[in-house]
Amino acid sequence: MRKLLVHLREYKKETVLGPLFKLLEASFELFVPLVVAAIVDIGIANGDKPYIAWMCLLLVGLGVIGLVCAITAQYFAAKASVGFASKLRRALFAHIQNLSFSEMDTIGTSTLITRMTSDLNQVQSGLNLFLRLFLRSPFVVFGAMVMAFTVDVKAALVFVVTIPLLSVVVFGIMLWSIPMYQKVQAALDKVLGTTRENLTGVRVIRAFGQEEQEKERFSGYNAALTKLQTFVGRVSALMNPVTYIIINLAIVAVIWVGGHQVDTGVLTQGEVVALVNYMSQILVELVKLANLIISVTKAVACARRVSGIMDIQSSMEDKGSVQTCGSEDAIVFDHVSLTYKNAGAESLSDISFTVKKGETVGIIGGTGSGKSSLVSMIPRFYDATEGRVLVNGADVREQPLQALREKVAVVMQKAVLFKGSVEENLRWGKRDATEEEMYRALEIAQARDFVDAKPRKLKEHIEQGGKNLSGGQRQRLTIARALISEPEILILDDSASALDFATDARLRAAIRENSEDMTVLIVSQRASTVLHADKIIVMDDGEMAGIGTHDQLIESCPVYQEIYYSQFPKEVKA
């Protein structure tokens, strides 16, 4: 929690001035009952109309000054809370960006989105209310009690009993509410996670006719959230009526005691009115304080959840400083094994091979054989649990991440494009890319034909995720985005699965012709895609079943034979 307050340092002035102006407003407000008492005891009692007029003008003056103080306090509180939330959101986003894929997989996307949006908004709102009311309300409550003692000690004893009783109610409910609101936010995570899954997979849901089942699943999570929120809300809602009952009973006691004091001549009627006004002020402020505590309780619960994400440290440290050696080997896997976090078994076991610079290597295997896991360790998306992965002669864990990933370009299985133009998406690969470089990358990726066919060409708008493009077009654009940076190592992770055989063949030929010095790794389930690679790595259930050229593997590797002959007819020998 304290780590989050670091982002409030730049707003020290605002965090002081906001409450200070609220205290000034409260101070002027505490004088109002005394002015009203003077009007009753002097102006009305003596029929002095000029005196009443002057006192009314004084009340207006106090109100105007209080309004100015309140507006000023609101300005400083808003500036501090919005600025704090902005900096915290930026820091949280940067922290999430630094987390490894292992932490991302464990935490979950919906949880991170909730922390960035709903939780941070609650923190911002809570801080705003805290700066405006947390000092003002107690100040008015205890200030009203002190002013009551200046009027009459006996009547003020009612205040002494009332305020602790109210404090027990308010703070008791607050202490109960804090953990309950954490459970509410956790239930909200499940609702958001289900919503995200349904929106992302809406086509699959409809294709399998699972709409009703998904509605039931969502309704279950939503009902659990509603039930929990209703329960917490009912208990929290007790705060207002209970405080109203206590305060009104206290007002009755003040009037009863004050009436006796007026009869004996100890108090005037105006002073009794002042005491009732002070009690009413306490009522209003405690209602505000009760609502504030509910909001602050939510904010504290949400802040703890945000702090929990900030406390998670990436399992992948970026402390590398080793520069790559002048090795002829572009990639070396030295007895590498990989076990995903919280996984029961290894995903890769004892993988060893060497790739020379400029070679084209095919990686083939069945679904779940570990192909993507294998290539994901080269740019260090995941760290090997055993063994070493070397790029240009140096262990990837000893190289700076930025420098390593500038050498390696990866085209993922799922083509991901961002909302913007074709040009803006290509510049992810190279920020200062010229138009000529963009067209060259598009041409190699076999994407220039459909880009040129668009009315605005490179300026053509792309929807989020490339939803206004076909699957093949998305894949070709992502390949172009990777090629434009001219990487030393290019990894195509089953990134041509949506392309027809002819386009796939032209793509591989274009990459081979235009990148003689580039090391290319092609992950595919198609034998035709890796057929002409310099060497082929065959994966089977997380292990390397074979390595060699097509001719070598077709003679010696049963796994490769099975894959190849399932896609090509087996020749019958005469």
Question: How far apart are the first and last residues' alpha carbons, in Å?
Answer: 78 Å
Unreliable stretches (pLDDT < 50, length at least 5) are none
Shape: elongated
The beta-strand count equals 12
> Number of helical runs?
21
CATH architecture of the largest domain: Up-down Bundle
The CATH topology of the largest domain, please? ABC transporter transmembrane region fold
**Order of strands across the widest beta sheet?**
6-9-10-3-11-12
Query: Which radius of gyration do the C-alpha atoms yield?
Result: 35 Å
Total domains: 2
CATH class of the largest domain: Mainly Alpha
Structural class by SSE content: alpha/beta
Helix share, percent: 55-70%
Assembly of the depicted chains? single chain
Average pLDDT metric = 83
CATH superfamily of the largest domain: ABC transporter type 1, transmembrane domain
User: What's the story with the biggest beta sheet?
Assistant: 6 strands, mixed
Strand content: 5-15%
Topology (elements, then pairings):
Blueprint: H1 2-5, H2 12-46, H3 49-98, H4 101-107, H5 109-133, H6 136-151, H7 153-200, H8 202-207, H9 211-237, H10 239-263, H11 269-311, E1 329-338, E2 348-356, E3 360-365, H12 371-376, E4 386-391, E5 394-395, H13 401-407, E6 408-411, E7 420-421, H14 422-426, H15 435-444, H16 448-452, E8 461-462, H17 471-483, E9 489-493, H18 501-514, E10 519-524, H19 527-530, E11 535-540, E12 543-548, H20 550-556, H21 558-567
Parallel strand pairs: 3-10, 3-11, 6-9, 9-10
Antiparallel strand pairs: 1-2, 1-4, 4-5, 7-8, 11-12
Helix pairs in contact: 2-3, 2-6, 2-11, 3-5, 5-7, 5-11, 6-7, 6-11, 7-9, 7-10, 7-11, 10-11, 15-17, 20-21
